[in-house]
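[scheduler] slot 2 assigned
[scheduler] job type: sequence-to-structure, two independent chains
[scheduler] chain ordering preserved from manifest
[runner] begin chain α
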Amino acid sequence: MTSLARPVAEDPYAKLPPLPSFALVSPDIAAGARLLTDFVSDGGNTSPALAWSGFPAQTRSFVVSCFDPDAPTPSGYWHWDVVDVPATVTQLERGAGAHGGHHLPRGAFHVHNDGGGDGYDGAAPPPGDHPHRYYFAVHALDVDSLGVGPGASNAGVAFHVAFHALARAILVATYSQ
């Protein structure tokens, strides 16, 4: 059996052009803290509530995501991607990431997570692996629509975000088994 011992991945946003930041908070998770069972795959598998403020005035939409750069793959693991969140929306309630997108704001949609589902896929690092970091990010964009559909890949969404991002807010939590 192969050991999972490996270096911790660097910050996934470190190699991208720097962006101004804004505030991202959650009543469900705290920066640097361990995710509660409600937000992990074999627990409640529920997306946490998120709220943001202080983004640029010219923001026209948002993309909300959750990414694990520590997954044992060369490309990490996308747990959640919500696209085309209107600029008038500044929070997602707990459970907004439910399958089917019925709890998302009008016009917003999920792209498939790396597990193949169309909503939030809770934390599920391999047992015995080091604590994984879960980057919850909100990108403020200069377009009303990113121009992708629900069939887009997470990498495709990230690619388009790179060309339209005005600012980025990040909240990082951890989890291990």
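[runner] end chain α
[runner] begin chain β
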Amino acid sequence: MEPAKISDLEEVYGNLVSAILGFAGITLFILLLVGGFKFITSGGDPKAVEGARKTISYAIMGLVVLLLSFLVLVLIKAITGVDVTQFKIVL
């Protein structure tokens, strides 16, 4: 077995970011489902409907923030030519 190298951090970091983004996407999807379920089962109760709307709104806002953050990174790459979406160790 070969000892770990500093360049292995690139792969670890890439896997970690992918896992976090995947977890965030799954969480937002579940929150949308929960909000929809709350909305359907509210029975016309104004407080329950408001709670369901807040859950759905927060999930959509989280999705928008996630997408905008990625778009900012792509915009930085387009303007500067530096690919900040890839983690590279330069020695």
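[runner] end chain β
[qc] chain β: The chain has two helices and no strands.
[scheduler] slot 2 released
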